[in-house]
Specification:
By secondary structure, the protein is of the alpha/beta class. Among the domains are: 10-90, no CATH class; 229-330, Up-down Bundle (Glutathione S-transferase Yfyf (Class Pi), Chain A, domain 2), CATH 1.20.1050. It has 12 helices and 8 strands. The strands form 3 sheets. It has a 4-stranded mixed β-sheet with strand order 1-4-6-5. Strands 2-3 form a two-stranded antiparallel sheet. It has a two-stranded antiparallel ribbon with strand order 7-8.
């Protein structure tokens, strides 16, 4: 039965199935180039892919590389295709869970930077991770961001073990960057990597739990949607949304509603337990809950009225509605 609750066993299964799909895709792609590689290089590629995909610590960059190989194959760009295969052999593409990185350090590698830029382009506008050519390396801000994140993860592990477990499965890399407006995000093309604006001193562990639960929920839906379409509405069919000034596709609204329901669940649990929380933290959680409940009430009817959903999509989002209704009634 598909529902809103984090399920560690299912998350492990989905993550493994996704790695299997990635393996099949990469094998198919290098097979297309078998005639242009000498036998030794082809066997090295096969060996590298098998070694990579056998692990559950893949970097999100490997999914971006896979997409780049697909694009090169479609465009019959032999030079680009060979270059990408060389990079597959040259670099590691693995990362342990909750690996902290600053965008400046990862972008010292020109190839990694290229993958990140291409994977974080929203429409025809480049993502604000790369709004400046030179990232100022503020070590103290980065260390504070890391400290607050670790405190949030510690609280999640104690009070939200299922949420923590799911985050550990899906989040491999936390990439911190500077930005004026963008708070945090992830991408279908960077599965396993989340990018987060560096946190100022005013940021709390409650803010970071909000970020981690939020992005893990997106990652779960991205992985699930690799095996079930969830939303069947055409992408160019857009609707009003309380989350943006402009209309959004149904999949965007679905993602937002699912994420909000997960956040309401998580904050409800923490608030009820209130173990070791300060008065300010409880007030902050209360404010988050009030905001998210209003947003859910304003957005779920759009899905109910206009959403064309698979059976999995229906069960998941109506389970979310049930959970929020219980929270509202409490």
């Amino acid at each position: 039965m598909e529902n809103i609750f984090p399920n560690i066993s299912k998350s492990i299964f989905l993550e493994k199935q996704l790695r299997n799909k990635l393996e099949s895709s990469l094998f198919h792609l290098i097979g297309l180039g078998e005639d242009i590689f000498h036998a030794e290089k082809y066997q090295l590629l096969v060996k590298k892919i098998k070694a990579l995909v056998s692990k559950n610590n893949l970097s999100g960059l490997i999914y971006s590389l896979n997409n780049e190989l697909i694009e090169a194959a479609i465009n019959e760009d032999k030079k680009r295709f060979i270059f990408l295969c060389d990079q597959l052999l040259a670099y590691d593409f693995t990362s342990q869970s909750f690996n902290f990185q600053h965008v400046e350090s990862i972008c010292q590698n020109a190839f990694y930077k290229d993958l990140l830029i291409k994977a974080t382009v929203h429409g025809d506008k480049q993502n604000q991770i790369f709004e400046t050519e030179v990232m100022l390396n503020n070590k103290s801000t980065f260390e504070h961001s890391k400290k607050i994140t670790l405190e949030a993860l510690d609280l999640m592990e104690k009070e939200l073990p299922d949420f923590y477990g799911e985050s550990k499965i899906f989040i491999k890399e936390l990439l911190f960057f500077k930005s004026k407006d963008l708070k945090h995000g992830t991408s279908f093309d960077l599965l396993g990597l989340i990018y987060i604006r560096e946190k100022e001193e005013s940021c709390t562990r409650i803010d970071m739990i909000d970020c981690l639960v939020h992005e893990t929920a997106h990652l779960y839906l991205y992985v699930l949607s690799s095996f079930d379409e969830i939303v069947l509405n055409d992408y160019d069919e857009t609707f009003k949304s309380p989350f943006r000034e402009y209309e959004r596709p149904m999949m965007g609204i679905y993602h937002a509603v699912f994420v909000i329901a997960r956040l309401i669940m998580a904050f409800d649990v923490i608030k009820k337990k209130a173990v070791g929380l300060s008065v300010d933290e409880i007030a902050q959680i209360t404010a988050y809950l009030e905001k998210y409940k209003k947003l859910f009430q304003a957005s779920f009817p759009t899905i109910k009225e206009h959403g064309k959903l698979t059976e999995v999509g229906k069960k998941l989002i109506y389970s979310a509605n049930d959970v929020v209704k219980l929270s509202m009634a409490a």
